[in-house]
Amino acid sequence: MSTPTATPTGRCPVAHDASDRKTARGADAAAPAVEQRDGTWHVRSYAAVRQVLRDADATRQAGFNAELATRTGLRPPVLFEDGVAHRDHRTAIARFFTPKTVDDAYRALMEEASDALIADLQRRGRADLSDLSLDLAMQVAARVVGLTDSRAPGMAQRLEKILALERLERLPALRRVASMLRVNLHVLRFFLQDVRPAIRARRKAPREDVISHLIDKGYKDGEILIECITYGAAGMATTREFIVMAAWHLLEHEDLRRRYLAAEEPERHRVLHEILRLEPVVGHLYRRATADVAVELDGATTTIPAGALIDLDVRAANADADAVGAAPLYLRPDRERAPRVQEPVLSFGDGSHRCPGAFIAIKESDAFLQRLLRLPLTVVGEPKLGWNDLIEGYEVRGFEVAVGATPAAA
Ligand code: HEM
User: Fold this and answer.
1) pTM
2) Residues 1-5: what's their mean pLDDT?
3) 270 CA to middle of ligand 1, Å?
4) Of ligand 1's atoms, which has the minimum distance to the CA of residue 365?
């Protein structure tokens, strides 16, 4: 690390040299590994973030509006569950996410959907990559969940409107109510058009998908609806953004693009994991301490007290040179990580809530990007970065590509 900052609770986990990170923000600047500020505990080093994520017995989910959503009285979705109920739920749904299931049940869909999107791009001549990635990510997530009986096209757009929900706890009361009313309308539409037909079809004939499993476990329609929205946020919106970000990096680094296209699957995945490490789609995770949380750093223990809100800075942790080696803000698929640090580092989370869809996300991204990046592409629309408050992540819009030479209109 280039400019460590000594603090009572650790040192700066981020190296502050030049960067390949497209989503660099002021907030990435020097900051202690663990500190309390404005009533929140901020955790930034890889080791400390991982410890908190693995301390499931002393923490509960506090991100994604969880603390407001869990007051509805309905059974919470998997992302908001804790303890034994959460463990049992994860064990039960694990079968939908194994590499074998991905190969047997979703690979053909990923390939066929990618082929269709590329054929459409070639026919039309140009497209915004975030439209293509939304379509693909929606189709794959819908298959895993079982949202395959919609009454009208446009499910991705219906979900997108719901996911535009702001971080409610930061809003004044009136705006919070207005925001919730607006979203409730979109939720109703999504329920009637997409979720209810899927539930009805599966009550008659169960299949191997999440909705059939939830029906089997006695979930009410409203609870299934919430679970579907959760998968929309956790599975669809995230993968959509990652695919566009990966295309951006690979189109910009010609040597990396060539290497990626020539490589076998493990190496292709390593390249994608390194892009995801550098550009985590979910930038911050949140937990509420339900008991004291002890964080060991450099031989000293910091205790985060019960009741505290904990902000886990995935962007900083993924750029912690102690975990990911030198020049952490550079894109280097062959970097030497510390032992047991995974390639995507904490981009899929860790501990009990670690993303079950990690393998699906990388497989579908790879299926699409391999096909896309073999085309003779010209970038005709500059990508614009936005930020999604709810998942504390980036959004890339306006990244338009044309097949072949730049069309006159561009
Ligand atoms: C690049 C794409 C993806 C990224 C970056 C991502 C990231 C994450 C992260 C960071 C979490 C942990 C949240 C926490 O600890 O609070 C998570 C959880 C989750 N993800 Fe993903 N995800 C991706 C794709 C997917 C896909 C494709 C699916 C399913 C089709 C999926 C389903 C889920 C579910 C159900 C959870 C909740 C798990 C639990 O709470 O036990 N994700 N994801």
Assistant:
1) 0.92
2) 29
3) 19
4) 1
